[in-house]
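Handout, page 2. Input:
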Amino acid sequence: MSATSNIRQAIQNLNPKKIHSLGERPLNIALYAATPGHYHDIEEYLLGGLTQGRRQESLAALHRGPDPSRALDFDLAIYDESVIAPRRSLVFRRDRPEEFVREVLTEHEDDLGVALARSFTPFRVPFAKQVIRRTSRENALFSLATALPDVIPSVFELPWAVTEFASDTAVLTANQVRMAFLLAAASDRETGYREQKNEIASVIGGAFGWRALARQLIGKVPFGGGLIPKAAIAYAATRLVGVSLERYYRVGYIYTRDERSQIYTEAYERGKGIVSQVLKRVRPDLWEKHAAKMEPNGRG
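Output:
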Protein backbone atom coordinates (compact mmCIF):
# COMPACT_ATOMS: atom_id res chain seq x y z
CA MET A 1 0.00 0.00 0.00
CA SER A 2 2.87 2.35 0.81
CA ALA A 3 4.53 1.67 -2.54
CA THR A 4 1.24 2.19 -4.37
CA SER A 5 0.69 5.50 -2.58
CA ASN A 6 4.21 6.67 -3.40
CA ILE A 7 3.79 5.78 -7.06
CA ARG A 8 0.45 7.57 -7.23
CA GLN A 9 1.87 10.71 -5.65
CA ALA A 10 5.00 10.68 -7.83
CA ILE A 11 2.96 10.29 -11.01
CA GLN A 12 0.69 13.14 -9.98
CA ASN A 13 3.72 15.42 -10.12
CA LEU A 14 4.00 14.80 -13.85
CA ASN A 15 2.40 17.25 -16.24
CA PRO A 16 1.18 15.57 -19.44
CA LYS A 17 -0.26 18.89 -20.62
CA LYS A 18 3.25 20.32 -20.76
CA ILE A 19 4.41 17.41 -22.90
CA HIS A 20 1.31 17.72 -25.08
CA SER A 21 2.11 21.40 -25.59
CA LEU A 22 5.62 20.48 -26.74
CA GLY A 23 4.08 18.40 -29.50
CA GLU A 24 1.57 21.08 -30.43
CA ARG A 25 4.27 23.74 -30.65
CA PRO A 26 3.96 25.55 -34.01
CA LEU A 27 6.95 25.02 -36.26
CA ASN A 28 8.38 27.40 -38.84
CA ILE A 29 11.07 25.88 -41.00
CA ALA A 30 12.94 27.64 -43.80
CA LEU A 31 13.97 25.62 -46.84
CA TYR A 32 16.68 26.64 -49.30
CA ALA A 33 17.23 24.76 -52.56
CA ALA A 34 18.32 25.45 -56.13
CA THR A 35 15.22 24.27 -58.01
CA PRO A 36 11.53 23.49 -57.38
CA GLY A 37 12.39 19.83 -57.79
CA HIS A 38 14.93 20.01 -54.99
CA TYR A 39 12.39 21.71 -52.73
CA HIS A 40 9.93 18.95 -53.58
CA ASP A 41 12.47 16.27 -52.61
CA ILE A 42 12.93 17.74 -49.14
CA GLU A 43 9.20 18.18 -48.61
CA GLU A 44 8.34 14.67 -49.75
CA TYR A 45 10.97 13.20 -47.46
CA LEU A 46 9.65 15.09 -44.45
CA LEU A 47 5.95 14.58 -45.22
CA GLY A 48 6.04 10.96 -46.35
CA GLY A 49 3.70 8.60 -44.49
CA LEU A 50 1.50 11.30 -42.95
CA THR A 51 -2.27 11.28 -43.08
CA GLN A 52 -3.82 13.86 -45.39
CA GLY A 53 -4.85 16.14 -42.53
CA ARG A 54 -1.48 15.95 -40.79
CA ARG A 55 0.31 16.39 -44.11
CA GLN A 56 -1.46 19.68 -44.80
CA GLU A 57 -0.72 20.98 -41.31
CA SER A 58 2.93 19.97 -41.50
CA LEU A 59 3.34 21.37 -45.02
CA ALA A 60 2.23 24.76 -43.70
CA ALA A 61 5.29 24.75 -41.42
CA LEU A 62 7.66 24.59 -44.42
CA HIS A 63 8.61 27.84 -46.16
CA ARG A 64 10.47 27.84 -49.44
CA GLY A 65 13.33 30.29 -49.83
CA PRO A 66 12.55 33.10 -47.42
CA ASP A 67 14.93 36.05 -47.30
CA PRO A 68 18.27 34.57 -46.11
CA SER A 69 18.71 37.50 -43.74
CA ARG A 70 15.61 36.22 -41.87
CA ALA A 71 16.84 32.65 -41.51
CA LEU A 72 17.42 33.08 -37.78
CA ASP A 73 13.75 33.98 -37.34
CA PHE A 74 12.82 30.37 -38.12
CA ASP A 75 13.04 27.34 -35.82
CA LEU A 76 15.21 25.60 -38.40
CA ALA A 77 16.87 26.55 -41.67
CA ILE A 78 17.45 23.55 -43.94
CA TYR A 79 19.77 23.84 -46.92
CA ASP A 80 19.61 21.38 -49.78
CA GLU A 81 22.96 20.10 -50.95
CA SER A 82 22.31 21.87 -54.28
CA VAL A 83 22.99 25.29 -52.72
CA ILE A 84 25.91 26.77 -50.85
CA ALA A 85 25.06 26.66 -47.15
CA PRO A 86 26.43 28.86 -44.39
CA ARG A 87 28.96 27.26 -42.12
CA ARG A 88 27.57 24.79 -39.57
CA SER A 89 24.17 24.75 -41.25
CA LEU A 90 21.78 21.82 -41.49
CA VAL A 91 22.34 20.30 -44.94
CA PHE A 92 19.93 17.85 -46.53
CA ARG A 93 21.69 15.20 -48.63
CA ARG A 94 19.48 12.86 -50.64
CA ASP A 95 21.77 9.84 -50.40
CA ARG A 96 21.93 9.94 -46.59
CA PRO A 97 18.97 11.89 -45.16
CA GLU A 98 19.20 9.99 -41.88
CA GLU A 99 22.37 11.98 -41.11
CA PHE A 100 20.36 15.18 -41.44
CA VAL A 101 17.72 13.85 -39.02
CA ARG A 102 20.40 12.85 -36.53
CA GLU A 103 22.06 16.26 -36.71
CA VAL A 104 18.76 18.05 -36.14
CA LEU A 105 17.84 15.94 -33.11
CA THR A 106 21.33 16.24 -31.65
CA GLU A 107 21.00 20.00 -31.68
CA HIS A 108 17.28 20.41 -31.01
CA GLU A 109 16.01 17.32 -29.17
CA ASP A 110 14.95 19.17 -26.02
CA ASP A 111 13.22 22.17 -27.59
CA LEU A 112 11.89 20.83 -30.90
CA GLY A 113 12.16 17.04 -30.72
CA VAL A 114 8.54 16.26 -29.82
CA ALA A 115 7.09 18.71 -32.33
CA LEU A 116 9.39 17.54 -35.13
CA ALA A 117 8.53 13.88 -34.50
CA ARG A 118 4.81 14.63 -34.37
CA SER A 119 4.90 16.66 -37.58
CA PHE A 120 7.40 14.71 -39.70
CA THR A 121 7.62 10.91 -39.73
CA PRO A 122 11.41 10.62 -40.38
CA PHE A 123 11.99 12.05 -36.91
CA ARG A 124 9.68 9.70 -35.01
CA VAL A 125 11.73 6.54 -34.61
CA PRO A 126 15.07 8.34 -34.04
CA PHE A 127 13.48 10.64 -31.45
CA ALA A 128 11.79 7.69 -29.73
CA LYS A 129 15.11 5.86 -29.57
CA GLN A 130 16.75 8.85 -27.91
CA VAL A 131 13.95 9.16 -25.35
CA ILE A 132 14.06 5.45 -24.54
CA ARG A 133 17.86 5.39 -24.29
CA ARG A 134 17.96 8.46 -22.04
CA THR A 135 15.13 7.31 -19.76
CA SER A 136 16.59 3.82 -19.40
CA ARG A 137 19.95 5.27 -18.43
CA GLU A 138 18.36 7.73 -15.98
CA ASN A 139 16.48 4.92 -14.25
CA ALA A 140 19.52 2.67 -14.08
CA LEU A 141 21.65 5.40 -12.55
CA PHE A 142 18.92 6.44 -10.14
CA SER A 143 18.58 2.84 -8.99
CA LEU A 144 22.32 2.78 -8.37
CA ALA A 145 22.27 6.17 -6.66
CA THR A 146 19.57 5.17 -4.15
CA ALA A 147 22.02 2.63 -2.77
CA LEU A 148 24.88 5.13 -2.90
CA PRO A 149 23.40 8.44 -1.71
CA ASP A 150 26.77 10.16 -1.63
CA VAL A 151 27.14 9.95 -5.42
CA ILE A 152 23.72 11.28 -6.48
CA PRO A 153 24.92 14.82 -7.30
CA SER A 154 27.83 13.56 -9.35
CA VAL A 155 25.88 10.99 -11.35
CA PHE A 156 22.89 12.77 -12.87
CA GLU A 157 19.72 14.71 -12.22
CA LEU A 158 16.26 13.63 -13.31
CA PRO A 159 14.67 16.16 -15.66
CA TRP A 160 11.72 16.64 -13.32
CA ALA A 161 11.44 17.27 -9.58
CA VAL A 162 11.44 14.25 -7.29
CA THR A 163 9.61 14.86 -4.06
CA GLU A 164 10.92 13.66 -0.73
CA PHE A 165 8.16 11.11 -0.23
CA ALA A 166 8.89 9.24 -3.44
CA SER A 167 10.49 5.80 -3.11
CA ASP A 168 12.92 4.57 -5.73
CA THR A 169 10.16 2.42 -7.25
CA ALA A 170 7.90 5.45 -7.48
CA VAL A 171 10.57 7.55 -9.18
CA LEU A 172 11.43 4.84 -11.70
CA THR A 173 7.76 4.25 -12.48
CA ALA A 174 6.97 7.94 -12.82
CA ASN A 175 9.89 8.35 -15.20
CA GLN A 176 8.53 5.48 -17.30
CA VAL A 177 5.10 7.14 -17.38
CA ARG A 178 6.73 10.40 -18.45
CA MET A 179 8.43 8.44 -21.23
CA ALA A 180 5.01 7.11 -22.27
CA PHE A 181 3.71 10.68 -22.52
CA LEU A 182 6.67 11.71 -24.68
CA LEU A 183 6.37 8.71 -27.00
CA ALA A 184 2.65 9.23 -27.48
CA ALA A 185 3.03 12.93 -28.22
CA ALA A 186 5.87 12.26 -30.66
CA SER A 187 3.75 9.61 -32.41
CA ASP A 188 0.87 12.07 -32.90
CA ARG A 189 -1.26 10.17 -30.37
CA GLU A 190 -3.44 11.53 -27.59
CA THR A 191 -1.45 12.32 -24.44
CA GLY A 192 -2.66 12.25 -20.84
CA TYR A 193 -3.74 10.10 -17.92
CA ARG A 194 -7.19 9.37 -19.31
CA GLU A 195 -6.05 9.02 -22.90
CA GLN A 196 -3.26 6.58 -21.95
CA LYS A 197 -4.91 4.83 -19.02
CA ASN A 198 -4.18 1.33 -20.36
CA GLU A 199 -0.51 2.05 -20.99
CA ILE A 200 -0.10 3.70 -17.59
CA ALA A 201 -1.84 0.80 -15.84
CA SER A 202 0.55 -1.59 -17.55
CA VAL A 203 3.59 0.43 -16.47
CA ILE A 204 2.41 0.59 -12.86
CA GLY A 205 1.49 -3.09 -12.78
CA GLY A 206 4.89 -4.12 -14.09
CA ALA A 207 6.69 -1.92 -11.56
CA PHE A 208 5.99 -4.28 -8.68
CA GLY A 209 7.42 -7.27 -10.54
CA TRP A 210 10.67 -5.46 -11.34
CA ARG A 211 10.81 -4.16 -7.75
CA ALA A 212 10.50 -7.64 -6.30
CA LEU A 213 13.11 -9.06 -8.63
CA ALA A 214 15.58 -6.27 -7.88
CA ARG A 215 15.13 -6.62 -4.11
CA GLN A 216 15.60 -10.36 -4.34
CA LEU A 217 18.85 -9.91 -6.25
CA ILE A 218 20.36 -7.27 -4.01
CA GLY A 219 19.41 -9.28 -0.95
CA LYS A 220 21.11 -12.45 -2.18
CA VAL A 221 24.37 -10.93 -3.39
CA PRO A 222 26.46 -9.59 -0.47
CA PHE A 223 29.01 -6.79 -0.24
CA GLY A 224 27.42 -4.56 -2.84
CA GLY A 225 27.62 -7.19 -5.58
CA GLY A 226 23.90 -6.84 -6.21
CA LEU A 227 24.09 -3.15 -7.03
CA ILE A 228 24.90 -3.68 -10.69
CA PRO A 229 22.21 -6.33 -11.33
CA LYS A 230 19.63 -4.18 -9.50
CA ALA A 231 20.39 -1.14 -11.63
CA ALA A 232 20.61 -3.27 -14.77
CA ILE A 233 17.07 -4.47 -14.10
CA ALA A 234 15.91 -0.86 -13.92
CA TYR A 235 17.60 -0.22 -17.27
CA ALA A 236 16.22 -3.34 -18.96
CA ALA A 237 12.69 -2.91 -17.61
CA THR A 238 12.55 0.71 -18.73
CA ARG A 239 13.88 -0.12 -22.17
CA LEU A 240 11.37 -2.94 -22.58
CA VAL A 241 8.53 -0.59 -21.64
CA GLY A 242 9.82 2.04 -24.04
CA VAL A 243 10.34 -0.11 -27.13
CA SER A 244 6.99 -1.85 -26.55
CA LEU A 245 5.17 1.49 -26.37
CA GLU A 246 7.01 2.83 -29.41
CA ARG A 247 5.99 -0.21 -31.44
CA TYR A 248 2.40 0.01 -30.21
CA TYR A 249 2.10 3.68 -31.15
CA ARG A 250 3.77 3.08 -34.51
CA VAL A 251 2.06 -0.10 -35.77
CA GLY A 252 -0.76 -0.77 -33.30
CA TYR A 253 0.51 -3.89 -31.51
CA ILE A 254 3.33 -4.88 -29.16
CA TYR A 255 6.04 -7.53 -29.31
CA THR A 256 5.42 -11.21 -28.70
CA ARG A 257 6.44 -12.83 -25.41
CA ASP A 258 9.58 -14.32 -26.99
CA GLU A 259 10.52 -10.98 -28.56
CA ARG A 260 10.07 -9.20 -25.23
CA SER A 261 12.24 -11.79 -23.52
CA GLN A 262 15.02 -11.26 -26.04
CA ILE A 263 14.76 -7.46 -25.75
CA TYR A 264 14.96 -7.67 -21.96
CA THR A 265 17.94 -10.04 -22.01
CA GLU A 266 19.92 -7.83 -24.39
CA ALA A 267 19.00 -4.68 -22.47
CA TYR A 268 19.98 -6.26 -19.16
CA GLU A 269 23.48 -7.00 -20.46
CA ARG A 270 23.76 -3.49 -21.86
CA GLY A 271 22.57 -2.03 -18.58
CA LYS A 272 25.17 -3.97 -16.63
CA GLY A 273 27.89 -2.50 -18.81
CA ILE A 274 26.64 1.07 -18.38
CA VAL A 275 26.22 0.81 -14.63
CA SER A 276 29.53 -0.98 -14.20
CA GLN A 277 31.38 1.88 -15.86
CA VAL A 278 29.63 4.44 -13.65
CA LEU A 279 30.31 2.45 -10.48
CA LYS A 280 33.95 2.04 -11.48
CA ARG A 281 34.24 5.82 -11.76
CA VAL A 282 32.37 6.90 -8.63
CA ARG A 283 32.99 3.96 -6.27
CA PRO A 284 36.00 1.94 -7.47
CA ASP A 285 36.08 0.07 -4.16
CA LEU A 286 32.62 -1.43 -4.73
CA TRP A 287 33.35 -2.03 -8.38
CA GLU A 288 36.43 -4.07 -7.50
CA LYS A 289 34.36 -6.21 -5.14
CA HIS A 290 31.88 -6.82 -7.91
CA ALA A 291 34.62 -7.58 -10.44
CA ALA A 292 36.17 -10.09 -8.06
CA LYS A 293 32.91 -12.07 -8.18
CA MET A 294 32.86 -12.17 -11.96
CA GLU A 295 33.14 -15.56 -13.58
CA PRO A 296 36.28 -16.38 -15.58
CA ASN A 297 34.44 -15.64 -18.83
CA GLY A 298 33.82 -12.09 -17.65
CA ARG A 299 30.09 -12.38 -17.00
CA GLY A 300 28.53 -11.85 -13.57
